[in-house]
Specification:
398 residues, alpha/beta, TIM Barrel, Arc Repressor Mutant, subunit A, 2 domains, nine-stranded mixed β-sheet, 15 helices, 15 strands, globular
Length: 398
């Protein structure tokens, strides 16, 4: 049995204008209390989740990976995300990672990622994180244009981002950076400048995300008030295609809609999500997917801490997927990747005949250059299909 482990740190220095994630500024007292609660959940859940998965897998035929040696360590990826995990000290984050190790389930070759904001790390802190056992750093740079960073409400400027990335490049063998396109006011030239600056840093992995203007965020209010003008669909597509071409030319392989990597540096943790495999989420608002059941923890950090302290259930909601729903989600997630989805294997796993029932849809996608189809494997084309992913995926939900 193999699992990915996601650990959520919901605190930030300040809330970015575009962010609708479960994150917030918080006083030191709450952050410290939360850290203790998070470690307690890790201690409770990691070993027990393995035991439940192994027992369940032995009772039913389901698309769940069985392990021939269930007592061996099989947490193969750890991803400490947020929020801003590096609002904590490296020593505090080491306590979190030590709790995972203490379970006896952490694979020696696990990919262990920590997200970081540029203004929360320096060389000494990054060195301490590496010594603690983090072997991959994911740095949220977002842009190298100060005016764009200000629109996003980021708490750092471009010089700070460049300095943090240079330090991380010296210390970590596996460096990932996040950047954003589609920022109001962003031009083709400013986007090219950000791409060139990022490539010059020689990261191993680049996540290039299209900006989503989410209702309820300050950015949404600025757009609604006419203070900012969002890009139209054509411009948005042009910026995306510029990223694809520039990053490919620099030796980065696009392996998912928004993700590009050098050979051997794909994010193993995120591939677990896109392949609809099993993962455990610890922390406020973190989601788990175990034995066909998705569950989500209590989102509010204070309520999460209170529930753990009282010995109460911290699960806010859960849902067991039936086979058609599982099949549709597996297709939706897999179509995000360059490897696509094996409709024949999914059909076999869920007892459905997807090739027959979706034959017309598949034929249209191939004819229009949106997808390729070969011996049961459906793949979206990066040139056209990736931009239409959401529309395509909806066609496979019954």
């Amino acid at each position: 049995m193999q699992l990915g482990l996601y650990v959520h740190c919901p605190f930030c220095i300040s809330k970015c204008n575009y962010c609708d994630f479960n994150s917030q500024p918080a006083p030191t007292e709450l952050r410290e209390r939360y850290l203790g609660a998070l470690i307690e959940q890790i201690q409770r859940r990691v070993s027990s989740s393995f035991a439940a998965c192994v027992a369940q897998a032995s009772r039913r035929a389901e698309p769940v990976e069985a392990s021939p040696t269930p007592d061996a360590p099989h947490v193969t990826t750890v991803f400490c995300g947020g929020g801003t995990p590096t609002i904590y000290t490296a020593q505090q984050l080491a306590l979190v990672l030590n709790a995972v190790r203490a379970s006896g389930k952490l694979d020696p070759g696990a990919e262990v990622t920590c997200e970081a904001n540029p203004d929360t790390v320096d060389a000494d802190k990054l060195d301490a994180l590496r010594a603690a056992g983090f072997n991959r750093i994911s740095l949220g740079m977002q842009s190298l244009v100060d005016a764009e960073l200000q629109i996003l409400g980021r708490s750092h400027d471009s010089d700070t981002a460049l300095a943090a990335a240079a330090a991380a490049r010296d210390i970590f063998d596996n460096l990932s950076v996040d950047i954003i396109y589609g920022i109001p006011g962003q031009t083709a030239d400013s986007w090219v400048a950000t791409l060139a600056g990022i490539i010059a840093l020689q990261p191993d992995h680049i996540s290039a995300y299209g900006l989503m203007i989410e209702e309820g965020t300050p950015l949404f209010e600025m757009v609604a008030a006419g203070r900012l003008q969002p890009h139209d669909d054509d411009t948005y597509a042009d910026l995306y295609e510029q990223a694809q071409g520039t990053l490919a030319g620099a030796g980065y392989e696009q392996y998912e809609i928004s993700n590009f990597a050098r050979p051997g540096r794909r994010c193993r943790h995120n591939l677990i999500y896109w392949r609809n495999q099993q993962y455990l989420g610890c922390g406020a608002g973190a989601a788990s997917y175990l034995n066909g059941t998705r569950s989500v923890n209590i989102a509010d950090p204070q309520e999460y801490c209170d529930a753990l302290a009282a010995g109460e259930d911290i699960i806010a909601s859960d849902e067991t997927l039936d086979k058609p729903h599982w099949a549709a989600e597996t297709i939706m997630l897999g179509l995000r990747t360059i490897e696509g989805v094996d409709l024949r294997q999914i059909s076999q796993d869920c007892g459905m005949e997807l090739e027959t029932s979706h034959a017309d849809t598949i034929a249209v996608l191939v004819a229009e250059g949106i997808a390729t189809y070969d011996r049961g494997v459906l793949r979206l084309t990066p040139e056209k299909g990736f931009l239409l992913h959401s529309e395509v995926a909806r066609r496979f939900f019954l």
